[in-house]
Every structure is written in structure tokens, then in C-alpha cells.
Amino acid sequence: MARNKIALVGAGQIGGTLAHLVGLKELGDVVLFDIAEGIPQGKALDLAESAPVEGFNAKLSGTQSYEAIAGADVVIVTAGVPRKPGMSRDDLLGINLKVMESVGKGIAEYAPNAFVICITNPLDAMVWALQKFSGLPANKVVGMAGVLDSSRFRYFLSEEFGVSVEDVTAFVLGGHGDTMVPLARYSTVGGIPLPDLVKMGWTTQEKLDQIIQRTRDGGAEIVGLLKTGSAFYAPATSAISMAESYLKDKKRVLPCAAHLNGEYGLSDMYVGVPIVIGAGGVEKVIEIDLQGEEKAGFEKSVGAVKGLMDACKGIKPELA
Ligand code: LMR
């Protein structure tokens, strides 16, 4: 059986971590693309030299040419610049939008049948622009955000309750920005929804509110610690879970920035919602019932994403 081909566009910290995970999980052969001379080649060779120790079989190569991604089954896009302390993700819009244009064209030309996962910030607006620039079907282009935000939420909850991360489920919806919406009612410890855990006295509403805010600030917390860049281990592993669900037709239910066409009363925009990812790409958008504050929070977040989309249209009128 032929191995899958996975193209990683951007060979920075996330790109390198993605390549490592693809190798360790034997998801396929890796083509690491970057415009920086030598970096993708160096990282690919370094990782290939680790394969005999780990015992994984994968061909890893680096390139500066889009031609090398030809026929990729999955393309994961991390190209662009990360934020620095004091910046918001939205500050990256102008520079990263230009990057999405050239990446979108490269994918359209060489990997039009791929399942594309975008990680570049500001996420929801960038994945929307990437889909438009590439012209790929909207169900084959998704943004990685909700899996990461939900994983952070799960981790903080597991610490608070002193339980295994495996027994904590959580959902974070909305845009991947300061307005994201961690949903307490749809998050559980051992199957028990968080509001019930407050009623049972296992935690307090105040503590829960602090965890929710820490989740919203999760990206900035890492940027503040690293100083020279943003998170890469958790973003990479989150994107790999999406790629794996596609390649193995796992049909996982994952919160991702997905193209909405009527769902949640929204059209032609990307925002974080639960979706089913299988061999058909985005096979279903799950419309969960949002109430009261949840609904208001989601609407506010949608408004913020729309503002960023308008800014993109202002820079690149062809996106309108
Ligand atoms: C994250 O959430 O870690 C990423 O979006 C990177 C960032 O700038 O916060």
C-alpha cells in the first residue's frame, strides 16, 4: 500500500514538531516546505536520522519549491509569522494574509485534492482567505483552533480536579481569539457537566471562571513565557489529531474552524464549531444548542471574526 504524503508548509517550530509527530505515528511521508534556504532540508534530515532509533518508516524531505508538494493527501499550513509578547493574533493579519495568498496558489496548483489544515493566525480569517485563494472545496479546508483551546481547557480542569486528562472532556467554540467561548455546560469530568460539579461543591464558580479566562488567554500565556515565539507542541499535536481523523476515516468529533453555509445562521465564514472529520473531509457540522450567555458569547466572537474578514477584504478586494 502506498504511503500517504503529508506536506507541511512552514518549517518553523510547529512545522518541525508536526514532521516529528507524523514520523513517530507513521502517518506517511513528509515534505517540509519553507522559503528559508536550508531550514526544511536540515530539519527533515535531522528527523530522518532519528528514525532508526525510534524505528519509524517515513521518507522526510525539505524543499523551497511548491512542486514538491504535488499530490499531497494532507497539507498543514503554518507559514507566516507568530506573534511576540504585547501583540494580539489580529496584529498579524496584514503580513500573514499575503502569505496565505501565495500558499493558497501553491496548493491549488500542486495539491488540489488535499485535505488542508490551517494553523496560521489570526486563524479564522486566515483559513477563510486560504480557502478562497486556493479555490479548494470548503469541506476540504479547515482551521486548527478548537482542538487546541479545548485541550488547554481540559488540562486546566484536570489540574483543578486532580484527575486524569483522559476523563475530562471540553468544548471551546467561536473564533480563536480573545472572544473564544469555552462552554462549561458541554464540558465534563467523568461525564459530569461542570455546572453540576459546582453544585456538588467539587469546585466553585469563581475558580471555574478563572480557568475559563486562563483558557482564553492560553496562547498569550505561552507567548509571554517563550518571548520569541508562540506555542508549538500543543498546536502541532492538535492538527495531527485532525489529519489522522481524515487519513484513517476515524470520524472524530472535533471543534475546528469550519466553513459555515447556513449552520448557526451564518454563511460563507469560518468559525470554531464541532465537526465530524472523516475520509470525506468535513463530513458534518454539528449545530449545538447555545443558550443565554453562551449564545451571546458566540455572537460576539462571530462579530470579531467578521471584522477581521472585512479587514482582509479591505486589503485584498478579490476576497469580497
Ligand atoms: C496559540 O493559541 O497558542 C496560537 O494561536 C499562537 C498564539 O499566538 O497565541
TrEMBL record:
One of its GO terms (molecular function) is L-lactate dehydrogenase (NAD+) activity. Keywords: NAD, Oxidoreductase, Tricarboxylic acid cycle. It catalyses: (S)-malate + NAD(+) = oxaloacetate + NADH + H(+). Coiled coil: none annotated. Substrate binds at R83, R89, N121, R152. Residues 5-143 form the Lactate/malate dehydrogenase N-terminal domain. Residues 148-306 form the Lactate/malate dehydrogenase C-terminal domain. It holds the Pfam family Ldh_1_N. NAD(+) binds at G10, A11, G12, Q13, I14, G15, D34, N96, I119, T120, N121. Its EC number is 1.1.1.37. One of its GO terms (biological process) is lactate metabolic process. InterPro entries: L-lactate/malate_DH (IPR001557), Lactate/malate_DH_C (IPR022383), Lactate/malate_DH_N (IPR001236), Lactate_DH/Glyco_Ohase_4_C (IPR015955), Malate_DH_type3 (IPR011275), NAD(P)-bd_dom_sf (IPR036291). The active site is at H176 (proton acceptor). Catalyzes the reversible oxidation of malate to oxaloacetate. Belongs to the LDH/MDH superfamily. MDH type 3 family. This is Malate dehydrogenase. It comes from Hartmannibacter diazotrophicus.
